[in-house]
Amino acid sequence: MSNNRPKVKIIKVGTTYIAPSEQASNILLQIKRDLGIGGGSTVTLIEADRRILVDTGFDYEWLDTPVNGQKNAENLMRSLKDLDMVPDDIDVVFITHWHKDHFGNLGIFNKAERLAPNGIVERFGLKDFRGIENQEEITSGVRMILTPGHTIDHASLTVNTVAGGITARVTVAGDAVISHGYFDSGRIWQYNADFYSVNKARESLLHLIDVSDVIIPGHGDPFMAYKPPWTKSKYNKTQSK
Ligand SMILES: [Zn+2]
Ligand SMILES: [Zn+2]
Fold first, then answer.
1. Which ligand number lies closest to the CA of residue 218?
2. What is the Å distance from ligand 2's center to 159 Cα?
3. Which fold has domain 2-238?
4. For residue range 181-219, what is the model confidence (pLDDT) as tens digits?
5. The whole model's pTM is what?
6. 103 close to 120: Cβ distance less than 8 angstroms
7. Domain boundaries in the chain?
8. How far is the CA of 183 from the centre of ligand 2 (A)?
């Protein structure tokens, strides 16, 4: 039976310009760019009865040039090729939220069905997307849960899988969890113009901790879920239920 469980594979680990311990500044951003940090999102593959790609990543998102678009497409295709795949092998693309560092490479997936949370499809009028409801199963063992905070209509996917021979609930969190550092410190990324709510972001984190064994963050390495120190402090009282 476990053979039929969806499998999860990280295609590309996302990067971030600002660690939770760092002060955001133009100099910091410049230094990180010069070091070759592109700031694109993690790209994750879920192999179920269909091949689902969660977020498509996009580095140097402010560089709105054909050259940058082409470089991004080539980098992602190279990562897919490492797994003997081409973009047309992807059946479904799911986007966690409407930020370019997460959807920028969408255009190379011509055959894939496009899915996103209902709220995003409606808010941005995405005609070529199918909207998904909270708690809706995309396919057996793969479920969408709304995780608002980073944006008003952000969602994550939970996957019932087997990792290292052990049953594991893997959550592809998008920017509901920026990185392990943000998760552990309880700091909330608030640099995006459409940032929604610190309290909702923390509620979403608490919910993710309940339903996850492993968390794949939007911009960093995966890690085992646990209750970090901040969940035991006053912030915990922001939980609504
Ligand atoms: Zn992001
Ligand atoms: Zn984002």
1. 1
2. 21
3. Metallo-beta-lactamase; Chain A (3.60.15)
4. 999 999 999 999 999 999 999 999 999 999 999 999 999
5. 0.94
6. no
7. 2-238
8. 15
